[in-house]
Amino acid sequence: MYLRCLIAVLFAIFLIGCTAPAPNETAQDPNVTPEGVRITPDVVYGHKFGMALTFDMFQPENQNGAAVIFFNSGGWRSYLPNYYKQSAEGLRLVTKEDLQKMTPNLEGSNINRLLDKEITVFAVRHGSTPKFEMHEVVADLRRAVRFIRFNAEEYGIDPERLGVWGGSA
């Protein structure tokens, strides 16, 4: 009797799974912008002192294999704003105007020019002063480069075609 009940329950579960509506194939991925850029926020590339070291990845729809690692840093502090914002439709790139409002002195740091050239961008955050000294910040940045190179195939980039970008420190 127990076996028959078990078989009936499993059969019912199977039937429910077979009759479930198919997922909507036209639904847009909320991490892909209308321009076709996939945004992967807060990828963890390491840990120290109980905190995650992270970067945001911006992948254009048609990647050319090249990538730029943007070191989000100034004065050995990783404090610059995100290059994306959350909207009702999902993640979206900030506009040049948004960036100008957030950080008036960083007008030239808009990553859209790189994405338009089909270059993948990694916006890397590191431990900041005064808690961490310069040599510790440099170690974080080297760790980020190693992590990105190690995962290059997964990210659709060529590990031999990496550039770096940043300012100040």
The level of helicity is 25-40%
Output mean pLDDT: 78
Name of the CATH homologous superfamily: Alpha/Beta hydrolase fold, catalytic domain
Q: What's the gyration radius in Å?
A: 22 Å
Secondary structural class: alpha/beta
Strand order of the largest sheet: 1-2-6-3-7
Give me the CATH architecture, please. Answer: 3-Layer(aba) Sandwich
Number of domains: 1
- Biggest sheet details: 5 strands, mixed
Unreliably modeled segments: none
Listing every helix as H and every strand as E from the N terminus to the C terminus, the arrangement reads: HEEEEEHHEHHE
CATH class: Alpha Beta
Please describe what this structure looks like:
The protein is of the alpha/beta class and 169 residues long. The protein has a single domain (38-165), classed as Rossmann fold, CATH 3.40.50. It is 30% helix and 25% strand. The chain is built from five helices and seven strands, in the order H-E-E-E-E-E-H-H-E-H-H-E. Strands 1-2-6-3-7 form a five-stranded mixed sheet, covered by helices on one side. Strands 4-5 form a two-stranded antiparallel ribbon. The relative contact order is 0.19.
Topology:
Layout: H1 2-19, E1 38-48, E2 51-59, E3 67-71, E4 84-87, E5 90-93, H2 96-102, H3 112-116, E6 120-124, H4 134-150, H5 152-155, E7 162-165
Parallel strand pairs: 3-6, 3-7
Antiparallel strand pairs: 1-2, 2-6, 4-5
